[in-house]
Structure formats: C-alpha cells, structure tokens
Amino acid sequence: MKTLAIIGSGDLGQQIAHYAFTDKHYSRVVFFDDFATEKEVVGIAVVGRVSEIETAFNEKLFDEVLIGIGYKHLAVKKKIYNNLKGKIPFGKIIHSTSWVDASATIEKGCVVYPGCLIDAKVKIKANTILNIGCTIAHDTVVNSHCFLSPRVAIAGFVKVEELCVLGINTTIIDGISIVEKTQTGGGTVLIKSIEKSGLYVGNPAKFIR
C-alpha cells in the first residue's frame, strides 16, 4: 500500500486522511502544512511545509499527493496543483460506497466522498472534491478545482467551469452552463445558465454579489 501526502492538516485534510485510511486506499498518511504549529494532527505527522514537498518526494517519503485545502481558498489550491503537476504524482480517492459508471472519467487529484452517484460519460476534472451524496447525471462536465458540497444534484449535459463552489443541496437542471468562480448558497436551484461570476442563492437562483 502507498503513502499519501496531504497538503493542509485542517478539517478537510483530516477528512481526506480519514477516508484514505478507513476505506483502505493508503496505508500511511503525512501532512504538509505552512500553518500547523504542532508536529502531529489527529495522530498524523506534519512532516514539513509546502515548499519542502518536492524534496520529500525525491527522498521517497511518500508516493502520491492530494490537496486538502478548503473551498474558501480554491485559487490557492489551483496554484499549488499547477506548481506540482508533472513533478509529483497526484492520488485519487473514490469512496467504495459511491457508484461510478464505467464510462465516467474522474481525474487525478479528486476526492469522491461516500454515497455519490456518477452517471455515464460524466467527466470530473482534476483537483475537484465531491462531498457526501452528490449525484452527477450523464454527459456532465465538472471542471478542475471545484468543490461540491453534500447532496449537490446536477442533471445531464451540464458544464460547470473551474473554481466553482456549489452549496449543500444545490440543484442544477439539464443542459446549462455555469461560468468559472460561481458560488451557490444552500438549496439554490439553477434553471438557466450562469454567465456572470458571483454568489447566487434561492429558487430560482438570483445573483447576490
């Protein structure tokens, strides 16, 4: 079994570590964190800063990396991913309780939490997180560096551009597109394409800021 390095030892990083262990994807986990003050978090060693991760990989301290930085810092998450791409192998966790059609594609750097349903010909691009119970219908594309909260439901032929945050229970009807850097509040219902980045809430969704 492999060793996973997680960038970020906060709540999200700890959740990823939990699934890495309990769902038996990795035998060992280490954290890299620029802000941790302790040498150990939830029993997992914090072995260095982000700037030290390439050296640690070359010293065979770990095998693959995932970025456990939360939805409030997606631009930072994208920057780190781009800096490490091609230098260090990215891991991928798809929880064993999720169902993924054989024709779907989930790229490296992604984490799929328990109970997700991913239908035919769906594409989940790199460095994206699907939280508990998300449903993604056929022929939909969720681009890189996105964060989908629990129970997001996306119909078929939808395109979500990168750096989007979809709030809990967001519903997106079929055939629409969501521009990059869009955020939705809990329970938002999108019935038409979003062409202007910002925060949307309500049913139907309305632009807030």
Provide an overview of this structure:
There is one protein chain. The protein folds into two domains: 3-84, Rossmann fold; 93-195, Hexapeptide repeat proteins (UDP N-Acetylglucosamine Acyltransferase, domain 1), CATH 2.160.10.10. 14% of the residues lie in helices and 30% in strands. It has helices spanning 11-22, 53-58, 74-84, and strands at 3-7, 28-32, 40-41, 44-48, 64-67, 93-94, 99-100, 105-106, 111-112, 117-118, 123-124, 129-130, 135-136, 141-142, 147-148, 153-154, 159-160, 165-166, 171-172, 177-178, 182-184, 189-190, 198-201, 206-207. It has an eight-stranded mixed β-sheet with strand order 6-9-12-15-18-21-23-24, covered by helices on one side. Strands 7-10-13-16-19-22 form a six-stranded parallel β-sheet, with no helix packed on it. The longest helix has 12 residues, at 11-22. It is globular, with a radius of gyration of 17 Å. The model has no long low-confidence stretch (mean pLDDT 97).
